[in-house]
Design brief:
The chain is built from four helices and 13 strands. The chain is an alpha+beta fold.
Length: 233
């Protein structure tokens, strides 16, 4: 067998192998829907449920889009609305008690006010990497430099900025929005599968659990089914 023929055969086999393991496609989903719902063999909601169990949507809280709730605590504020241009800072609480520190400052002319953020770990990195000092506030070409001599006392070593306030931020997961209210129920009709005919429509029921989520569907009363040639009882 020539090498080109052998290569073509391997590619064909690999393609068939991939096809056997590939995920559901849009075309397959449409064909499945056509063969089920549109021929009345499966109720619409069951078709939807089957599709949802086959293709899982990504969680809203996955990856970098996770929702966080932030709680801000003011740790220091200037004694004047115009801010301070020099001096040390004494916080009301240890900066290490928080997930993040936010400072508000500006250039000496006070033409704008902007924020600066850092975590306690990032402060430690800067101290270890540099000459034993870090920035409490930095924006554009202005900064407020120094270091924490204790977890609440900031000693300023240099600045060309104004400082207005310092906040500690704690992160927590955003509270989940309930899908339903406890005690709430939903009822859905269930019909007989084709080629049977439905003499009496059945039901299935789901209820709201204590954590605000819907329970799986459970059978209410079954549908009464007969063949197309039979009379309903």
């Amino acid at each position: 067998m020539k090498k080109s023929h052998l290569l073509s055969l391997l590619i064909l086999l690999a393609g068939n192998s991939f096809a056997n393991t590939e995920k559901m496609t849009y075309e397959k989903a449409m064909e499945s829907d056509k063969n089920t719902f549109h021929r009345n063999s499966v109720p619409l909601q069951e078709t939807i449920d089957n599709w949802n169990t086959y293709v899982k949507a990504p969680n809203e809280s996955s990856g970098g889009s996770a929702s966080l709730q932030r709680t801000y605590t003011q740790l220091w504020q200037s004694n004047t609305t115009s801010g301070i241009t020099t001096g040390n800072i004494v916080l009301s609480e240890s900066f290490r008690n928080f997930d993040e520190i936010v400072t508000l400052g500006s250039a000496d002319n006070g033409g704008y006010v902007q924020h600066y953020r850092f975590t306690p770990a990032e402060y430690d990195f800067a101290i270890a990497r540099g000459a034993g000092t870090a920035t409490l506030y930095e924006r554009d070409s202005v900064s407020w430099n120094g270091k924490f001599t204790t977890d609440t006392n900031w000693t300023t070593t240099g600045e060309n900025a104004k400082l207005y306030s310092v906040y500690g931020v704690k992160f927590s997961s955003s509270p989940k929005t309930p899908s339903c209210s406890v005690g709430q129920t939903q009822t859905e009709n269930v019909y007989c599968n084709s080629p049977q005919k439905t003499c009496e429509v059945g039901t299935r029921i789901k209820s709201c659990t204590t954590n605000g989520d819907w329970s799986p569907w459970s059978q209410g009363h079954p549908a009464i089914c007969v063949s197309q040639t039979q009379q309903c009882p």
